[in-house]
Amino acid sequence: xxxxxxxxxxxxxxxxxxxxxxxxxxxxxxxxxxxxxxxxxxxxxxxxxxxxxxxxxxxxxxxxxxxxxxxxxxxxxxxxxxxxxxxxxxxxxxx
Length: 95
Prior knowledge:
By secondary structure, the protein is of the alpha+beta class.
């Protein structure tokens, strides 16, 4: 069974946030960290994985990502701090 991931990246604690969805979390975060793809995360140096969720249903993951993107900043920060109060880069824990 495949897993799908909804994730939040940050530029620093309480910094710029980015929300995405992927089927390969390790590869996708590596791409963000290495600035392989042009876009928001490269432009604003948003490279730290601070939050993620795992889903088995791609449609559910995409719906969750869309909902999270509509949240206000306070809700996003609360979500991060419930899972990761120190805003650690979780990338090293998943590789």
